[in-house]
Design brief:
heterodimer; A: 8-stranded mixed beta sheet; 31% helix; elongated; B: 214 residues; alpha/beta; 6-stranded mixed beta sheet; 5 helices; 6 strands; 43% helix
């Protein structure tokens, strides 16, 4: 029997676009897996008392917003040092309160967000489903030399916030409410005070 | 000898010939995605800022003699996370400093504020708080917004309320949950800049109610 081959209805341009889309998705997924794997391996084996890698979100005097660096206890001070920048530090005795909360965040930063937005066929949303990770947020409330109140927020790998808080308390930091040590964010629960 | 028409057709064939036809089609998808992306980014980043800027034009009075001390955020009983309280407070200080509306800016508890003559105290009370989820926002676009609603008061040392207002701060699309605190602080700064504060001499308790959402 002679069968004529059925010509494909896909034009070369369409298949090319699909190919590009798949390539884009594959790249995003590999980036996502890489970043998750990297952060998970970093989160292992926390050593109490040593410097921990954190992201300074805001509030620590002398440090830039969203700067990554090392947070450590040095003598009677807690220090944040970013590569190539002078150390910012605060006396532990001036700390008024410490809170640790955990929160879910998307990984990959701005580049990943742009990639997800540009991905065709809603591929970015699929990637977003898997490209998230839980972090600890360490809030340190302290007073400066003039008595002015500061609230510094650091983003740490999950599980390291409590360890660092215990170290700070052991070194003389004041904590007003030990029972509120860890509070979990409750997404999608509406609180209203009318 | 070629006529003008033949020459024109030849030129058209060269421009829209098969090899030239594939290249623009290959690039069209990427170009369209780039244009869409830039458009979305422009809307997300610049429109709220432009709205806020335009609303301040022409409303500000002369130089204000006041200094301001930012009080700690009162979380109310809405279950506000500590990081949000600290972030609102720190962002308020930054955004107010950017406006250059006040002569001096003090933190809560700063001893230097004790001797300052014309001092107002900014009190912030959280009224509503809806915790959101960055992942839900990224996946669904329409769900998972983080919403904050606060009441701000400018009071004198004697307790006179100079200004009272309700301000919102939300994050609906791009950004982490804490970005809501930045948006809130920006809206508070814009609201204060729009307001005309009374002179120290003729200080009369003034109440102003309004809403500003972003």
């Amino acid at each position: 029997m002679n069968r004529n081959p059925i010509p494909s209805r896909q034009t070369p341009v369409t298949s090319l676009q699909v190919g590009h889309g798949l390539a884009c998705l594959t790249l995003l997924l590999s980036l996502c897996a890489g970043s998750i794997g990297q952060t998970q391996s970093e989160a292992q084996s926390p050593v109490p008392g040593s410097a921990i890698h954190v992201t300074h979100v805001l509030g620590f005097e002398g440090a830039r917003h969203n700067a990554t660096g090392d947070l450590k206890i040095q003598g009677d001070a807690v220090q944040f040092q970013r590569d190539g920048s002078p150390t910012a530090q605060v006396n532990i005795s001036s700390i008024q309160d410490i809170f640790v909360e955990d929160e879910d965040k998307q990984v990959g930063g701005t580049a990943m967000t742009l990639g997800k937005t540009a991905a065709p066929f809603g591929g970015g949303r699929v990637v977003s489903l898997f490209a998230h990770k839980k972090y600890d947020f360490l809030t340190v409330e302290y007073l400066d030399n003039n008595g002015g109140f500061h609230g510094a927020i650091f983003q740490l790998d999950k599980g390291r916030g409590q360890t660092f808080k215990k170290d700070l308390v052991a070194n003389g930091a004041h904590v007003s409410s030990p029972d509120r040590a860890t509070t979990q964010s409750t997404p999608e629960v509406k609180h209203e005070n009318k | 000898m070629k006529t003008n028409r033949e020459t024109s057709l030849a030129a058209t064939k060269t421009t829209f010939g098969l090899p030239a036809f594939h290249w623009p089609n290959r690039q069209r998808g990427a170009l369209a995605a780039l244009v869409l992306l830039l458009g979305a980014l422009q809307l997300q980043l610049f429109v709220p800022t432009a709205l806020a800027e335009s609303s301040t034009v022409g409303k500000r009075g002369g130089a204000q003699p006041w200094s301001v001390q930012v009080d700690r955020v009162d979380p109310g009983d809405v279950g506000l996370e500590s990081s949000f309280g600290a972030a609102i407070y720190e962002n308020l200080l930054e955004e107010l400093a950017k406006t250059e509306q006040f002569k001096q800016l003090f933190r809560n508890g700063d001893r230097n504020a004790n001797d300052v003559p014309n001092l107002l105290i900014l009190k912030t009370t959280v009224q509503k708080y809806t915790p959101g989820s960055e992942t839900r926002r990224a996946v669904t676009t329409v769900n998972g917004a983080t919403k904050l609603n606060v009441r701000i008061q400018l009071v004198t040392r004697e307790g006179h309320v100079v200004l009272e207002n309700v301000v919102d701060g939300n994050v609906r699309f791009i950004g982490g949950n804490l970005r809501a605190t930045h948006n809130l602080a920006h809206n508070v700064a814009v609201t204060l800049k729009r307001s005309t504060l009374p002179e120290q001499a003729d200080l009369v308790p003034e109440q102003e109610t309004g809403k500003m959402s972003k």
